[in-house]
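CHAIN AND CONFORMATION:

***
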Amino acid sequence: MSRRAASAVSVGMHPAAAWRRRTRLAEVTAERIWPLAIWVAMAAWTVVLCVTVRGAYESFRLGRFDLGHMVQAVWSTAHGRPLEVTHSATGEQVLRLAGHVDPFLVLLTPIWVAWPSPLSLAFAQIAVVSLGALPVYWLGRRYLASRSAPGLLALAYLAYPWLAWSALGAIHPVTFAIPFYLFAFWFLDTGRLLPFALFAALAMSTGELMGLPILALGLWYAAARSRPRPGLLIAAAGLAWTLVAVYVVVPAAAGRESMFYGFYDQVGGSPQGVARRLLVDPGTVLGALVEAHDLAYLALLAAPLAGLFPLAPGVALAGAPQLVANLLSDFRSMTDPRYHSIAAVFPFLLLATVLGIARLRGFRQAPTAALVLLLCVATAVLLGPWARTIGKVPLGVERDRTPERVAALRQAIELVPDGVPVTASNSAGAHLSARRYVYVVPVLGRAEWAVVDLREPWAVRADSPILTKRPRAIRAVVSRLERDPRWRKVFERERVVVFRKSAP
């Protein structure tokens, strides 16, 4: 008699009944343990990243670009001027919609009212992004035969290194779209169109191009689920959002076409320009997709997921519009996976990975999911936010400052009264953006105070939406203020200077 049978006989239970009981107990345990493990992992991930982003903020490694821009838009909304910001390059008061169509920022206003701090927005982004592990787990349970594979893939979502980088980039509305797309797909896949519509609308509200993945999901739903009417309606809604945002909202708010068309000068400079260039000079456009940095970008996106997403191509292609936009861009940060440009790509690669693993035989699913988790963890260890080997920081911000310099910046900022117009170096700008008028040096505008870090070379140009290194411009504006009798230097330490404008 076997040991299992003997044990069963000793307690008066048939061996088959004992086996079924132990199997059921294992199933119940798995059903309870994995959700608990995922919630614990989400909480731990959130806490670690919140501590990290707080340290970055307090050490001036988050700047006016881009945290300060979002802070000002939300602050203005809370004070009755929805999405008003100071244009960094021109110093004009404009709507945020003149650059990016992301009205989602309005929904962050209650958070600011409850806790008026830039950290409240940064913490909200991290917490919301962590929730994306839930639809990944639910989708895995729906399609995978293995009880452990769904949990492993949910943990892989949190371990994916580029997700942590994006969540720490305080803040970008499109980063919120990562979990919104995952929830949207879950509800679409299960046929619950009303909650799908809610999350699809939230995702689209984070950016002008965020309707294109919804367009692709609508086409997928029409074909894969044989629901042509709702699928085509979804696709039409996604396309309409992007067309209206790009060709109506931005020109109306900015008075001209999008300033970001300049990122595509080499391939036509606009969507229609790219289309024309593709017809007359396809080699240039296709060549822009396969440059060395583009191929490296694709490899870095794919490697943590073991390159499995082609097993479910229909879902993976929903991320293709943003991926193509990234690859065609002249702006190298768009093909750096550490930036938020992965937001409309990564969710669909992960969803396709889950569905691709579902096509494997049952006994292979758990080991494959474990491999994906292992690759995500290994990549995070080597290239994650805490790896000193690459050390990415937001554009226009240095990675490290001495404690003395940080203390000087804090003292300088404390001198500036709340609400007064100010111009500041990028690194100080995130701490000074909760006001109506805030400029980036060398722009003075209506500024009554100026906080300048002479060791920081980054400045704005009137013809560019991004920061560039212009140390001469920084020194020139300081010299100008020193010579101007209307301005008085009130602080200088560690080459951080503060000027105050005299009353007229």
In short: The CA atoms of residues 86 and 93 lie 5 Å apart.
